[in-house]
Design a protein that fits this description.
Blueprint lengths: L1 E11 L4 H9 L4 E2 L3 E11 L4 H4 L3 E7 L2 E7 L3 E3 L2 E11 L4 H15 L7 E16 L3 E13 L4 E14 L1 H15 L8 H7 L2
Antiparallel strand pairs: 1-7, 1-10, 2-8, 3-4, 3-8, 4-5, 5-7, 6-7, 8-9, 9-10
């Protein structure tokens, strides 16, 4: 499935800020119950680093015993709003070895010129997620407690995302601006992936 991802991201110094943002998100909205789950993302490129040079990202995700491939293309970040298109394909295999084999086959079939993929880094994430509904738009908030593992080091990162789903996009942007004012945290211009790439 191909779709446009539009979201605001905030990086915070510690997990205590999750509570601060949950309070800000709940103002005048319907915030449904928080779901907690673990995610392991492995990011790949070929020997020529074609994806990195194109500012794209290819990952193999494991979540709730399910695997999927996601290709994120070069996007833009304006005033903290990140927008990029992404292609996600479900993987049928249930084992790590089988999923990796199927992942490489799908990548070769769906990404022109890609071959000889190798792993760049791993992001291990304890995620909390909740749906947010206002009178004019719906979105999803996620709270990520991450370890970014490269060959050089492990980086601890706490990130909060609010992804637009449907409704009034202008109201969504105004809501995010109010969240930044209330929490006193400005949206960040660098993602988990960009942080990892900078530390390869």
């Amino acid at each position: 499935m191909k779709r446009l991802e539009q979201e605001y991201k905030w990086q915070v110094p510690c997990k205590a800020f999750f509570k601060v943002f949950r309070k800000a998100f709940s103002q005048g909205t319907d915030v449904s119950n928080i779901v907690r789950y673990s995610i392991t993302d492995r990011y790949f490129d070929d020997n020529s680093f074609a994806l990195s040079r194109a500012k794209s990202a290819l990952r193999l995700r494991k979540s709730n015993k399910q695997y999927e491939l996601t290709l994120k293309t070069n996007g833009k970040n304006k005033n903290g709003l990140a927008s990029r298109s992404e292609l996600t394909l479900k993987i049928k295999a249930k084992t790590a070895q089988g999923a990796l084999k199927e992942f490489k086959t799908l990548a070769t079939e769906n990404i022109k010129g890609i071959k000889d993929l190798h792993s760049l880094f791993i992001i291990k994430n304890k995620r909390q997620a909740c749906d947010i509904k206002t009178k004019t738009f719906s979105a999803q908030a996620v709270f990520d407690d991450c370890n970014i593992c490269t060959t050089k080091k492990t980086i601890k990162l706490y990130e909060i995302e609010l992804e637009f789903f449907e409704g009034s996009f202008n109201d969504f942007k105004k809501f995010c601006q109010k969240v930044s004012l209330e929490t006193k945290v400005e949206p960040c211009g660098i993602s988990k992936v960009a942080t990892a790439v900078a530390n390869l």
